[in-house]
Amino acid sequence: IDTDSEISDIAKKYNCGLIVNPGDAISLKESIFWSYENKDKLNEMGKNGFKAIAGNFDLETAVDKFVKVLG
């Protein structure tokens, strides 16, 4: 994920993912090793991602936000 992307912002905000710039093989390698060595933290990040989706990006929440934008 590009560090300047909206997806990167979500991953940072909810602590639900690792961020590696495209083409950065060294950071990708380090992230893979970190994932292997930190399975408990990786599992927690997965739970955080699920909570983030369920609480912020489900259909009902998206519709509510859309209706508010329409005013």
Number of strands: 0
N-to-C SSE string, H for helix and E for strand = HHHH
Task: Give the biggest beta sheet.
Answer: none
Residue stretches low in confidence (pLDDT < 50, at least 5 long) are none
Name the beta content range. Answer: under 5%
Question: Helix share of residues?
Answer: over 70%
Give the terminus-to-terminus CA distance.
33 Å
What's the tally of helices? 4
Shape estimate: elongated
Rg estimate, integer Å = 15 Å
Structural class, by secondary structure, is mainly alpha
Q: Would you tell me the overall average pLDDT?
A: 91
Q: Care to describe what's here?
A:
With 71 residues, the protein is an all-alpha fold. It is built from four helices and no strands.
What attributes does this structure have?
mainly alpha; 73% helix; 71 residues
Helices and strands, with pairings:
Blueprint: H1 6-14, H2 25-37, H3 39-56, H4 59-70
Question: Quick recap of the structure?
Answer:
The protein has 71 residues and is mostly helical. It has helices at 6-14, 25-37, 39-56, 59-70. It is elongated and about 45 Å long.
